[in-house]
C-alpha cells in the first residue's frame, strides 16, 4: 500500500486550500469579464477570447468549490471563516490581474511572503508528524502463555522467536531533539536493540531477544548522549522506550519511531 506524505494528506483534507484556490480562479474570471477589448487590434477576436477564458476560469472555480465540499467532507464547509478566505483570495486575484501596473508588484511580493509562511507551516506539519519504520513484527501463533513472532529489523534478516507472555515490546534507545531542530529537519536518533515480552499482568518475562548487531546509532554514540544530555545543545532527552503491544495471531505490525520522539506499534494495513 503506497505511503501518503503528511503534506499531501494535509492539503487534501483542508477545505481552506480548496476554497482559496476557488477564490483565486473566481477573481481571475471576474478580471477577464471586466477587461475592455475595444482598444485591441482585433476587438472581435479579443472579445471572443475574453469570454472563453471567463467561462474556463469560472468552471475551474466551480470545480474547486465542489472539491472543497466533497474531499474534506461536507460538514467542514459550514465554517463561516471559509467565506472570508474565498473573498480575500478573489479580491487579491482580481486586483493583481485587473490592475497589474498599480497592484501587481506589491501583491506579488505579498503572495511570495504568504507562500514562504505556508511552506514553513507545511514543513512543520511534516516535521512533527513524520516517522521512520525501524522494524516489522508478524505474529505467527499465540498460546495461553507464549507466542511465536517473526521480527524483521530494518535492513536485517528476519528472526523467528518463541517468547513467554502475551505482550511484546521493542527495546529502543532514543535521542530526542528540541522542537526547533525537529522543525528544521532533525529526526529522532534510535538504537533498536531487540524484543522483550510481558504477561497479562504486565510482568516482564525471561525470554528477551537481543540483536547481535542493533539497528541505528552505535552504542558509543548513545552512551555519550545519555551521559551528557544536559550539556549537549539541542538535545531534549535520551531514554529507553518499551512500548507494549498485545500479540494477535496472524497480525502484522510496524514499529515506528516518531520524528519528535516516542515509539509506536501500528497494525500493517492490508
Describe the structure.
This protein has 270 residues and is an alpha+beta fold. The protein folds into two domains: 6-127, no CATH class; 131-267, no CATH class. 44% of the residues lie in helices and 28% in strands. It has helices at 6-13, 15-33, 43-70, 81-98, 100-129, 179-183, 219-228, and strands spanning 131-142, 146-153, 159-164, 167-177, 189-198, 209-216, 235-241, 245-246, 252-258, 263-267. Strand 9 (252-258) and strand 10 (263-267) form a beta hairpin. The longest helix has 30 residues, at 100-129. The protein is elongated, with a radius of gyration of 28 Å. The protein starts with 5 loop residues before the first helix and ends with a strand.
- What count of helical segments does DSSP give? 7
CA radius of gyration is 28 Å
Count of extended strands? 10
Query: Major sheet, described briefly?
Result: 5 strands, antiparallel
What would you call the structural class?
alpha+beta
Order of SSEs, N→C? HHHHHEEEEHEEHEEEE
Runs with pLDDT <50, length 5+? 1-11
Strand fraction equals 25-35%
Span between termini: 7 Å
Shape: elongated
Q: Walk across the major sheet and give the strand order.
A: 3-2-1-9-10
Helix coverage percent of residues?
A: 40-55%
Number of domains: 2
Mean pLDDT: 81
Amino acid at each position: 500500500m503506497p505511503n501518503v506524505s503528511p503534506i499531501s494528506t494535509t492539503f487534501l483534507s483542508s477545505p481552506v486550500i480548496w476554497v482559496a484556490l476557488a477564490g483565486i480562479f473566481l477573481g481571475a474570471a471576474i478580471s477577464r469579464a471586466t477587461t475592455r477589448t475595444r482598444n485591441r487590434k482585433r476587438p472581435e477576436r479579443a472579445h471572443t477570447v475574453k469570454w472563453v477564458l471567463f467561462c474556463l476560469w469560472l468552471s475551474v472555480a466551480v470545480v474547486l468549490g465542489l472539491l472543497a465540499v466533497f474531499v474534506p467532507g461536507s460538514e467542514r464547509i459550514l465554517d463561516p471563516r471559509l467565506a472570508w478566505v474565498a473573498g480575500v483570495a478573489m479580491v487579491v486575484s482580481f486586483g493583481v490581474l485587473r490592475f497589474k501596473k498599480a497592484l501587481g508588484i506589491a501583491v506579488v511580493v505579498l503572495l511570495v511572503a504568504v507562500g514562504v509562511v505556508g511552506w514553513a507551516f507545511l514543513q512543520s506539519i511534516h516535521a512533527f508528524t513524520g516517522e521512520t519504520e525501524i522494524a516489522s513484527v508478524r505474529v505467527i501463533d499465540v498460546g495461553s502463555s507464549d507466542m511465536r513472532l517473526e521480527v524483521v529489523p530494518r535492513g536485517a534478516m528476519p528472526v523467528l522467536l518463541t517468547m513467554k507472555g502475551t505482550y511484546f515490546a521493542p527495546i529502543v534507545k532514543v535521542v530526542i531533539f528540541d522542537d526547533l531542530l525537529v522543525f528544521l529537519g532533525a529526526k529522532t536518533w534510535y538504537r533498536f536493540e531487540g524484543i522483550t515480552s510481558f504477561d497479562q499482568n504486565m510482568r516482564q518475562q525471561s525470554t528477551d531477544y537481543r540483536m547481535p548487531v542493533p539497528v541505528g546509532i552505535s552504542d558509543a554514540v548513545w552512551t555519550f548522549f545519555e551521559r551528557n544530555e544536559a550539556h549537549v545543545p539541542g538535545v531534549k532527552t535520551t531514554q529507553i522506550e518499551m512500548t507494549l503491544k498485545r500479540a494477535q495471531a496472524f497480525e502484522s505490525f510496524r514499529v515506528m519511531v516518531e520524528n519528535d520522539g516516542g515509539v509506536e506499534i501500528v497494525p500493517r494495513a492490508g
